[in-house]
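Exercise: predict the fold of this chain.
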Amino acid sequence: MIVYPPMHIRILGCGASGGVPLITGEWGQCDRENPKNRRMRTSALFQIDGLNILIDTSPDLRQQLLDANVDHIDAVLLTHIHSDHTMGLDELRQVYFKHRKPIPIYADAHTMEHIQQRFSYMFSSADSFYPTFLEAHPIEGDTFTISHIPIRMFEQLHGHQRSSGFRIGNVAYSTDVKDFPEASQEYLEGLDLWFVDCLRDEPHSTHAHTELTLSWIEKFKPKQSVLIHLSEHLDYENLLNRVPVNVHVAYDGMELQV
């Protein structure tokens, strides 16, 4: 049995693809006076035994890492190819310049192929001033290791596309998901903490809505859950008042110890 060291987890951003407020200034159903409704795009930082492991690189990554006072990243896990989860990759160039060590990127083969094509200069460069600063690690199988930390990847259905969920010890992270293949459901058993997609109250074609997310929580029974990838349609206080006591609503800068 693997015993995992304690984890410190920070929600760098908990918003959907448009953030809150939207770039057009709209707050939707969110109370603009509550700072917990101001949401950058979704990404998270897992700090484990001296390692900084980043899940997704949102377009807001620069401000997120500044807010977290973090200047080095040991590895990045990418859940899928969408821009709100990958467009912050270039921000890691400055991290490389400080530490002069390429940053390992882990993703399923499809995601990695897309990222390497889309951002080829990050992985291969003949330019001495802008050197290669990312290192590709396509994930084979369902288990891989970062340093001495085993991590399990599982498949999620994201509309007609796929995304990856990750499990580290008894903590799982499931953003951008509409359903789980039967083979993936074992990864959601026996969790102490589950970060899980919850876009809005109304059903959506590619994301879980509130009722669906809560039904998953009832089914898999994690000890604690945190709702992430929240759109402008979900007000923090309103949602918090409607969920069970072991279900928490994410906000930017939220920190948890496991």
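Check your answer against the key: Helices lie at 61-68, 83-86, 92-99, 109-118, 120-123, 210-220, 236-240.
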